Amino acid sequence: MAIRLIVGLGNPGPEYEQTRHNAGFWLVDNLANDSGARLQRETKYNAMFAKASIAGQEVYLLEPLTFMNRSGQSVGALCRFFKISADEVLVVHDELDLMPGTARLKKGGSSGGHNGLKDITAALGTQDYWRLRIGIGHPRTLNLAQQVADFVLHRPRREDQELIERAIEKSLLVLPQIVKGEFPAATTKLHTD
Fold this sequence. Notes:
Radius of gyration: 15 Å
Mean pLDDT: 95
Distance between the termini: 26 Å
GO molecular function: peptidyl-tRNA hydrolase activity; tRNA binding
Organism: Duganella sacchari
Strand content: 15-25%
Number of helices: 6
CATH class: Alpha Beta
Order of helices and strands: EHEEEHEEHEHHH
Keywords: Cytoplasm, Hydrolase, RNA-binding, tRNA-binding
Structural class: alpha/beta
Helix content: 25-40%
CATH topology: Rossmann fold
Number of domains: 1
Main location: cytoplasm
EC number: 3.1.1.29
Number of strands: 7
Low-confidence stretches: none
Largest sheet: 7 strands, mixed
Shape: globular
């Protein structure tokens, strides 16, 4: 099964642009640039939207313009319109449980407390969609005295930003395999540090 929709999660607006919670947007922005696609506001989905050609496949790119905890509205609307099933969806999001510099691919599983994933699961009626998890670290693991909500809504330290960007670059290299449905090969390549 190939991927037909790649969703980047984040919060809209310039005040959130550089925050850790927007790692999904960062990847999709890079993917759009690399593939020559132009994300444009699409009111029908309340999102930034583009069609891209990746590995010879037509793929939709989506960045919901709702806040993170309402991401499912955009994803659900687009999936219904284009008749995209959950296993054809890849959601790219920040992951507290992974250190900066790490990216992991998985299908299904719980939201792990991520409100964007919770809302997408509710909208799709299943947890069985693909996730590309971009590690941002956890304030405790990084020895920071911040609450999680505060942590994800702030810019990463410069050294963490560089690691997150490296994980995004590595993820972009395996996206053609992911889009073609070559999940075991993509997973092996991505998870090999």
